[in-house]
Queue: 2 jobs
Job 1
Amino acid sequence: MAGMNFCFGHCPTPGSDVALIGQQHLLLTRRSRCTHRNTVLKLYNNHLPVYRNQSTTELQFTEDFIVQRVKMTSNTITVSLPQLAKMIDHSLLHPTMTDADVIAGLRIAREHKVATACVKPYCIPLAVKELAGTDVLVCPVIGFPHGNSTTEIKVAEAIAAVKAGGAEIDMVVNVGKVLGGDWEYVTAEIRQINDAVKAEGALLKVILENDYLSDDHVARLCEICTDLDVAFVKTSTGYGFVKQADGSYNYKGATVRHLRLMREKAGEKVQIKAAGGVRTLDDLLHVISLGVTRIGATATVAILEEARKRGIGNEPVEVSFKPMKEAGETSGY
């Protein structure tokens, strides 16, 4: 993914840091690196929708940092319907889905020309058949949903999935090894699977399952995936349920805080996939503004129908969106 620098001042400044706090952007640039005291905001652009933040700016100088706080007064983004569709992996992963359910979902993916149909491994031949003659790719999951298979099994499953017709592979990390701090194991596993998938001509998305992890775990995984040249890091499976205080099980999925953290810690070439909780057009537009380039969704039809109702068509138009809540419970894709 190419990076573009936008300079608020006289010259580009290497080493600028971007921290996103609440509904404000806090841009920090070390004075020692910026003789003109300007701030550079790096935006990620891969021929994707253009995010515009209508804002007022207040500069505040401190001894060590130049702080530019950009207060958001409205949220707009320029998008087209085809761009939105190609940001969606239509999810067909619920364990109760019959073949008839999967076929119906594949026809939705085909009709709406999404990026991929995300399927369980045994459904790959069915997906290949139903999506033949389209540009909708097949995206199988492996080690799903808990990531507990051995590395050897995950590698074999990934290779088999690509050979059967998978173009993008979504793989779950070994969460227990992450929580235990066995980074050598975690790194070696991701490396082996990524190498195997790339050798077969496909790409890998690494599912972190953020609900189980601390911010430090999420950051470290993003850094590992960057070092290994993984194509995507993904927030969640949609099935990482956590026991709540009342004894029930639920999960948060893709949160604003985690998406900001992932975009900050992952390298420029690593894309972000948000899965779990992105159910409306406003949700999709907001996560795009955070640097997300793909979502996993079952609400594909509702999202794209709402886009049409709001005047989004084949040509890019500017639309406003309501930001997602900073935190909150969700339940599935």
Job 2
Amino acid sequence: MRGRRSLSQRMDEAEARVSQVEGWAEEATEALCTCLEQQRKLQIKVLDLESRSRRNNMRVFGVPEGQEGDSVMQFIEKLLRSQLQLPEDFNFKIQRAHRALASKPPPGASPRAVIVNFLEFSTKEMILREVWKKRQDTSGRREYNAIKKILKDKGIRFQTPFTNMRIHWETGVRTYSSTREAYKELKRRGFQQEHDKFKTLGYSNTFHSWCKK
């Protein structure tokens, strides 16, 4: 009888312990699910904050490496002020300005973009509107005169819608959004630089194609 009671007691104790462990496991599962749900909500909030922050970003392409000097922010402010003819007291409210986080490209490769973060979204939108107006200015077509002269001399068909240039090469039609792009293409194809202006086309002429969201 004692042996039976002892065995029965041990079974009762084991069942109690199993029940207790099952209770702990259930509580732990609930706690884990709660933590995972909180983590999911936090991730959504972080993504939302990142999206809101990037909403105020503007990328500037084509700035040669090292052109910004010691201060990217001062360089960008000076560039925007001069190219868009903004007043000296205009406050850009730039929070950060830096090169894209990538390795410095080798000589001859495309430079890294400059990322500009504005405090206010409205400032970024205003600047993009001004850039677009500059891009739409039909006087920009005159920038292509030197290139057009060479293409005419070579009998190559081309068009200049707005401030773009569409060239009908033997290999197909290509559209260039700036004089710099067209200049590089002609140089790559071995055309002679027969015009002084063609030789001096620089990145300042392509500002209207620099800025993007």
